[in-house]
Write a structure and sequence with these properties.
The complex is a heterodimer. By secondary structure, chain A is an alpha+beta fold. Chain A has 2 domains: 86 residues; 101 residues, Threonyl-tRNA Synthetase, Chain A, domain 2 (2-Layer Sandwich), CATH 3.30.980. Chain A has 4 helices and 4 strands. Chain B is α+β, with helices and mostly antiparallel strands. Chain B is rod-shaped, with a radius of gyration of 43 Å. The chains are: A alpha+beta, B alpha+beta.
Chain lengths: 214, 183
Amino acid sequence: MPLRLNLYHEIERDKRAKSRDPLKLGILAVLCVAAGMVSYYFWQLGVLRGIEQSHRVTRAQFEDLVPKAEAAKKREQEFADVVKSKERLVERMEERFHWAPFLAQMGKVVEGDVQITKLSGELQVAKIRRCNLAVEGVAAGADPRKTAEHLRVAIRDELLTRFKVVNATFRTLEESPTPANIHGKPQGTALFLIQVQVATGEETPPKPPTRKKR
Amino acid sequence: MKLGKEEIKRIFLAGAFALAVVYAFFNGLLGPVLKSQAAMRKSIAELAPRIQEAKLVLAKAQESERAAQSAKDVLAQIAQMTPHGAPVAWFPPQVAAAFKTQGADKALTRLIGETPEKEIAGYDKVSWAVELPRVEFFSFGQALADFENSQPLLEIYSLSIEANREAAETQRVLMSAQHLIKK
């Protein structure tokens, strides 16, 4: 094995020592950290630009929409008024009281032994339309009171086919001294006045009072 | 390895300088950027619900506009039911014509009053009194049915049918009615 002599061992040691110089290593480390910090800074700047762009877009959208929304709010009241007017008008047209079918029903129940001398009605308009009707007339027959009662019941039953609430009561029922000639036979008569009340709907019952907790 | 006094001083100075640089970096450069980002994010977060609210208002208004347009069409159709001109000029002839078809030869119609309808904008309530001195009950009923169907804006508030004394087979009718008329 040949003998090798390293005459540069001191130079190489110095070289190695120089490459492991803590100052140099420190400077390198600081430079790396500085480069990292600068890159991080630029990366955050990029993020900021993105947020700025999105903020600009949002702000522009806001400035565009808000005046439109305020104007729309003002117009909405106007639209609501139009819709309300139409609803009230249609409701009024649909819920009005028709007298012709009412008269047809009255005509149906009057028999030959009854003569109606006056029929008058008045409409009360509230949440529910009520009609108060007075039917005046003369009933004839062997028992004219019974004939009048038969008419009252017939009126009530007939009107109940159309209205939910019907009241038919006698205001007056008096026998008359004047006889009536029906089919050639004289019959006793009675004067009557029947009060009829009908309602086009039913009132909702009031809510029961709530009990106070002790 | 032993450090000399001068070297320790230099290391200390270098450390202080590095700390100063780090402090300056975070406070002078990165700090304002992060602060600005946070402020903008906050501003966007604040604007987002207001934009959403505005969009909802606009959508609701659009829906209301569609409903109002359809309501306007209906109102226009209803308004067409009323002839132009003063009601007193066209309504009494309409009443006379309606009942004449069923044999009522005479119809007296008087204007009672005219008040604005509070619940329906643009409409007036016009009250009428109608007298038919001579009618026959069943044909009157038929004429009344036709009349009520032809006048959807009219409602009869009172009706009185009384036997005529001089001609028992005929009746005298008094009616009061209220008519909604477009101004």
